[in-house]
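EI: anyone free to look at a 80-residue chain?
SC: sure, send it
EI:
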Amino acid sequence: MPNANHGARRSSSTASHIKGGSNTSRRDGIMEIRSQALEMIEMLARMFAILETIETRSTERYAADLRASVKEDQDAARNI
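SC: here you go
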C-alpha cells in the first residue's frame, strides 16, 4: 500500500532549504535547540544538587540513628 503522504508538498521552510534558500532560519532553529539544551542541563544540575543534599542528610540521619542504636544496645548489655 503506498504511503498516504507520498507526493505531498513539503512545508515552505523545508522547501526553501531544499532549494538552497537562506540558512538563517535553520541557524536560528539550531541556536534555539542549543539554548533549550543548555537550560535542560542547568535544570538537571540543580536537580542533582537537590538529590545530593537529600542523600547527604539521609546518610547523616542514618548514621545518627545507628549510633543511638549501638549506644542503646551497649546500655542494655551493661544492665544485664
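EI: The mean pLDDT is 81.
SC: 👍
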